[in-house]
Design a protein that fits this description.
heterotrimer; A alpha/beta (607); B mainly alpha (285); C mainly alpha (338); A: 607 residues; alpha/beta; Rossmann fold; 23 helices; globular; C: 338 residues; mainly alpha; MetI-like fold; 14 helices
Chain lengths: 607, 285, 338
Amino acid sequence: MSLLDVDRLTVSVGNSKGTFTVLSELTFRLEPGQVLGLVGESGAGKSMIGRTIAQLLPKGFHVSNGTLVFDGHDMLGIDERQRRALLGRDIAFIPQEPLAALNPVLTIGQQIREHLAHVARGEGRTRVADWRATAIEVLQSAHLNDPAGLLNKYPHQLSGGMCQRILIAMAFLSRPKLLIADEPTTALDVSVQARIIDLINEMRRANGTAVIFITHDLRLARQICDEVLVLYAGKQVEFGPGPAVFDAPAHPYTRALQLAIPPTMAEHRGLFTLPDRMPGLMALNDMQGCRFAARCPLAMDACLSTVPADVTVGQGHRSACLRPMDTGTIQPPPPPEHRQRQAGTTPLFTARDLSRHYVTRARLLRKPDTFAAVRSASLDLAEGEFLGIVGESGSGKSTLARLLVGLEGASSGQMTYQGRDISGMDPETAAFRRRNIQMVFQDPQSALNPRRRVGAIVTQAMEVMASTAADRADRAAELLSEIGLSPEMAARYPSQMSGGQKQRVNIARALCNVPRLLIADEIVSGLDVSVQAQLLELLLRLRQERALSIIIISHDLSVVRYLCDRVMVMYRGEVVESGAVDTVFANPQADYTRKLLAAMPGETGQG
Amino acid sequence: MAALPLWLRNTRSVIGLTILVLVCAAALLAPVIAPHDPNEQDLLNTLLPPVWADGGDPAFVFGTDSLGRDILSRLLHGARVAMTVAISASFGAMLLGGFLAHVAGYFGGWADWLIGRIIDVWLSFPPVVLSLILMVGLGSGLWNVILAIILVDWTRFCRVLRAEVLVVRRRDYVAAARLLGFSHLRTIVREILPATLPLLITLMALEMGIAVVVEAILSFAGMSVGNEVPAWGQMIADARQDIYTSPSTLILPAFAVFITVFGFNILGDGLRRSLDTRLTQTERA
Amino acid sequence: MFATLLSLFLRRLAVAVPTLFVVSALLFIVLRLLPVDPAAMSLPPNATNDELAAMRSTMGLDKSLVTQFLIWLGQILGGDFGNSIQYRLPVWQLIGDALPATIELALLSMVVATIVGLAGGLAAFYFRDGAGEAVLDLGSVVILSLPDFLWALLLMLVLGVWLNALPFMLRLDPGIERPVITGFLLIDTLLTGRLDAFASALKHMVLPVLALGISAAPSIMRVLRSSLLDVYQEDYIHQARLRGLSERQVLLRHGLKNAILPTLSLMGVQFGFLFGGTLLVEVIFSYPGMGNLMIDSIRNVDLPVIQIVGLTYCVMVLLISTVVDALHLVLNPKLRAR
């Protein structure tokens, strides 16, 4: 008997506008000790399965059809008490945001103790004998240093990685039969991510635990999953053994996703960009045929009218597509044009020995305590060149970006633009800098004023100049079409746009005054890969059409490798390595760069 | 309801507005509709009960007080004082507190420090005590009451708004505006103020209610507009001595204070629900 | 824990000293705006101009405002609070009689406000999205719309005058002699074993305490409810449920422990207001505390008393906020780490 048997599970949400299907007819089995990857882009319904098992669906959501049997228990039929008896004992969960998942006012020890008591009650024991010793043992199993000391610590005193280790240790202490891990490494740095994955793997083997691993990252899924289930708009489009799905995808969506991810190590290639975006819940009700048809490169007329049935394409490998065997015909475009030529050599921008110190504690009559966020960073940029700055959180890369555009003054160091010194913060220098250097901010949610219309946002720079409303409307239309949005969008508010569209508006605003240099801080992080691919193509197109130079700051090495000519690696405020992208990736010199590259999850499949 | 702007279109705001329109109408029309001069004493008809009680006189609908003055007329004229104080004092407190909040929150540094310390000093006074002391210093009179309330209650605006400005200030769109060449003033007016405005309006509604209460407290203590001007608090104070014989002289002005403050509070509550971006966002999700 | 608490108290003291300095300067300046002559007031009406001038110079009124302030401040720091003009008694003696009464009243009211407020907040949270919440919500707006002094009058009218259930004048039934040891009536009656006096004192406090407690409770209730709603959006609540904890455990161990922190901040401010609220409530119930002293000395323009009473109110508010901060420090580990 399977550990988990899900049959035609359908979850719906009812609100004032009607009833919508969030998850439709999900069907799969999970055997004990197996790892199932649940992959898909945000909004595909990945997180619903964990919430359904726990019966902790958000308000208004309900299971409208299907069955879900775990270890002989009908999870949809059992009562509250029985379900709670399974949760935390036979079924354990690992969260996405480890820091937020621990109670900030209780010590780690108190939280482990509470969980030990819950597990003990399940085994019929009323008291936990010597919880402290047990807790220390539990923490040791997750390879945490100084477990005794950790017991008295509060979550805010620990790093995200440590909190995740603690939560993993707690999850496994009851030797659960099933573990549900919802994006457990998304909030963590790349190097921490790899170690967390290792830990989950080690613990699940030791305890014989089956895992449902929910992720948006195909590379990660490939690395650890025995079986993979691909979700698109609430529908299961492909299911099968990991190697089969990744090496010979039988659904065009899977294939397209793979090709939308820039390769980390493999040969350079172009990115396959899916047009448009995944249909929202509201649109699904009116849809006749395949949900993917509108974006599918293989779509035929039949796809728009027939809902494709699940067809078996191999041993345990199913696909919901009318043309499952033709996915191989989807090929990546050639590598981007800049790969074939040298970047310009005319120097545009230089920075020498930039440093930024923050006062962490002012002291009376003595030198204050300071923290160096950036320590003597230098860089050169030629006209039309793309430079990538990579580093993990706390590396100082975002502070450096703020120094480069003049949002903050450097503690020391010098910057020049076309030979002119722009280190000063005086109004004249600031105006010069503004005309030539602009910034694209990381989070469009925070970077776009929710109370302004898109048209006003993109032409915001004209507000301080002599310009008429008609001028601005014309310019807005121009800018919007340049970044690939229809001019009608000018009348919308940011809240009426998707994440990718907002990020385009964010870019358009920076382009309004035709700057020569853009500083882009993590502008694709948090976006789905298909949207990311669209944005990367947009940047490359701007580069070609406008001879724009960009300094792109990112934690994602493959994005930098795809876009940039040169790369600079930062670690704890210092530049540890810089050079041409291909040289650094093929032959890293600094230890830290080597560590970073080794931690990257591998490729997703054949390119 | 459909004619109202979206942010007023909820039951609470409508109830509040209806009450306040009625009170305002009473205040504006008092000289026209009041059946008697509010200060006219009729010593033959003192402490008359309201018409619906035994011994009521139709000439004095709500009865008379211990000096034979018509309660209804005094209530109507009292609304003039209450509404004048509510509107002017809360507007003044909003201007002063809002201005300092934006300066402190936006510029930070020593300006923020200084304004923060001033607020600390103000907060160490219970508001009632501070307003009483200010009235002792300023002397009675309508404009002094308003001034005293402004000087006491600007901190309510300043504290809450400053925290909000700090949140908005950290948004990237504020940094973006600076990078696009916006001056500090333009950044505050165009980027920050629109975001703090909903909170400011909500606070205004609540502050008007508070101003009505403070005026009632001051006139109850005999420190407000002076004896010749009828005010609700003063009516309540006068009625205390007749609490055994004529409780209606106490209950009626107390109810006038209550219903007006309730109007402002329920309007503020409605505004908070429809304007508070944080609330509406969680409702949307 | 002890060290952090100690450092908190030292820090608060370092802030309180300049604050009180500014407060006393403000009081001094505001009260000097008065068009009254304290010298004339402290002399009989038939005093001659020479006597007046002599009095002015002994009171220091012929010196500059700054000098006058510094002299006054020096006297206060030296423990000399001056004399009441109307009672011809040292001010400290008047305060010494009135302050314990007010503290007793305020403390009991805070206890009532806390119990009613927290219980109401929990109930409103428990009945969220139901009819119960709407009732509690509307009820809290109604209660908030009646200020404390009107509650006092209303309770007096209903429970005192109409139902004749509770006394509403002074602190003791006539005929009971008031024992004085600490100045706190409830404590003194117990210390002297006078249970009848204790019961009488307690009865006399019911109405004023109810008036103050009821009007402070709704704000506490609303903040607790909204903090609980906020906390329940957090991941750790979801995670606690995923670990199989019951809703009761989730609420007590995870929800309340976090939601109480913002509630506590509000209670600090609210209790400052409540302390100010005692002023009129005391006047209404003829309760011999700071409020009656204040109004009495304002009516008689007894400047030395007004100044010191005002200052005393500030000291009490600073004390309340220090205690609330200390509680915060005990309950919130994030504050302790710094």
